[in-house]
């Protein structure tokens, strides 16, 4: 779905660079990248440098950068391009899914985003550059970038250690540092979802990386305080993405 | 950034933290923080650098690694609107740098397969 957008902006001299945030690195990201037939640069971010450098806390998020290498919009929620025509009908065959996946789909269907507004703004900037009202001043870019704190910064450090420990197969160390990152940066969905996605739950089958929660028969073995379903219910799916902040 | 060393070079600091060490100090774009620590032949000592740049340092001896978190000095994720020169590998392992795309608008899009 991003290919059509890439072709449109590439024809106007711009480039789409995707960055896959995944502890599993190329192995985790390759299937989706290859299936998309991506012609644009598709980079791999095993330790979530996008969080450290740009303040990314959820996906998908995007940063707009002008020809001089200056950010004109800091990291913000970036819904996929709108699908032309009527909205897609609700998925069928849900009954065939495991119970948890059905519940996840119900919550996910209530997540709110406004792809039309976002992509209209994006194309306005692609066409008009600095003249676009959606291209922010440098001071505004800094002011709108994610507030930093000692706890958050420390949480980022723990997250990198967790990701590296996971890559080295040091599971207990990974869990220790993921838990510390979650406690210090409680509003980062990427820190939580990355950790949860690495837990193998045989009940998940083909949904392994999206299960992100306890084994239904052995919930006591789940090593984290939260999980995707519990956390989105507590925070409300309507609050999953911040609305586009506009001009 | 992660390191197993006691000292970091200017190149490593810039590549991994986005901070460029210049005569004016540690800089992001035109925003510079004067540095009071000295560079030795081995580079900048990690603990001193962390303190000077207001970055947390978390050590994990079991991995032989230290993690430097982002700086808190600017109060925001960005100290400057000048984009740091992100350098990450593609699927083939080739390092791609954001600075390669100067002269083009870039939409930098973060996603995940989970």
Distance between the termini of chain B: 23 Å
Q: How would a crystallographer describe the biggest sheet of chain A? A: 2 strands, parallel
User: Any idea what the shape of chain B is?
Assistant: globular
Q: Could you please say which CATH topology of the largest domain in chain A applies here? A: Glutaredoxin
Number of strands of chain B: 11
- Percent helix of chain B, as a range, is 10-25%
Strand % of chain B is 25-35%
Counting helices, strands and paired strands, the structural category of chain B is alpha+beta
Q: What is the end-to-end distance of chain A?
A: 26 Å
| Residue-averaged pLDDT of chain B | 96
Shape of chain A: globular
SSE sequence of chain B, one letter per element: EEHEEEEHEEEEE
Kindly state the percentage of residues in helix of chain A: 40-55%
Looking at the chains present, what oligomeric state does this protein adopt?
heterodimer
The number of distinct structural domains of chain A comes to 2
- Residue ranges of chain A: pLDDT <50 for 5 or more in a row? none
- Computed CA radius of gyration of chain B, to the nearest angstrom: 15 Å
Question: What report would you give on this structure?
Answer:
The complex is a heterodimer of chains A (247) and B (114). Chain A is mainly alpha-helical. Chain A has two domains: 117 residues, Glutaredoxin; 90 residues, no CATH class. Chain A is built from eleven helices and four strands, in the order αβαβαββαααααααα. In chain A, strands 1-2 form a two-stranded parallel ribbon. Chain A starts with a helix and ends in a 12-residue tail after the last helix. The model of chain A has no long low-confidence stretch (mean pLDDT 93). Helices cover 13% and strands 32% of the residues of chain B. The mean pLDDT of chain B is 96. Chains A and B meet through strand 1, helix 2, strand 2, helix 3 and strand 3 of A and strand 7, strand 8 and strand 11 of B. Strand 1 of chain A pairs parallel with strand 11 of chain B.
């Amino acid at each position: 779905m991003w290919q059509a957008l890439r072709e449109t902006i590439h024809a106007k001299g711009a480039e789409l660079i995707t960055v896959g945030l995944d502890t599993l690195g190329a192995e985790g990201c390759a299937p989706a990248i290859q299936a998309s037939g991506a012609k644009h640069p598709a980079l791999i971010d095993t330790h979530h440098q996008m969080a450290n450098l740009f303040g990314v806390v959820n996906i998908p998020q995007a940063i707009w950068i002008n020809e001089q290498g200056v950010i004109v919009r800091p990291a913000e929620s970036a819904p996929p391009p709108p699908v032309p025509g009527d909205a897609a009908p609700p998925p069928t065959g849900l009954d065939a899914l495991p119970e948890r996946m059905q519940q996840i789909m119900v919550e996910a269907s209530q997540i709110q985003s406004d792809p039309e507004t976002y992509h209209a703004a994006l194309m306005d900037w692609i066409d008009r550059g600095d003249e676009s009202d959606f291209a922010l001043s440098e001071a505004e870019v800094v002011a709108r970038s994610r507030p930093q704190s000692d706890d958050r910064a420390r949480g980022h450090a723990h997250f990198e250690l967790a990701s590296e420990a996971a890559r080295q197969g040091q599971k207990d160390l990974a869990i220790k540092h993921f838990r510390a990152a979650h406690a210090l940066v409680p509003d980062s969905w990427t820190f939580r979802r990355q950790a949860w996605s690495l837990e193998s739950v045989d009940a998940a089958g083909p949904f392994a990386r999206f299960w992100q929660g306890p084994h239904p028969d052995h919930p006591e073995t789940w090593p984290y305080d939260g999980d995707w379903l519990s956390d989105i219910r507590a925070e409300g799916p309507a609050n999953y993405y911040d609305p586009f902040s506009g001009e | 950034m992660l390191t197993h060393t006691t000292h970091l070079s200017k190149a490593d600091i810039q590549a991994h933290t986005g901070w460029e060490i210049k005569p004016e100090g540690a800089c992001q774009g035109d925003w510079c923080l004067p540095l009071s620590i000295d560079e030795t032949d081995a580079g900048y000592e990690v603990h001193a650098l962390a303190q000077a740049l207001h970055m947390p340092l978390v050590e994990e001896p079991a991995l032989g690694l230290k993690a430097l978190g982002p700086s808190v000095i600017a109060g925001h994720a960005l100290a400057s609107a000048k984009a740091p020169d992100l350098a990450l590998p593609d699927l083939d392992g080739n390092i791609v740098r954001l600075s390669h795309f100067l002269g083009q608008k870039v939409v930098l899009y973060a996603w995940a397969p989970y």
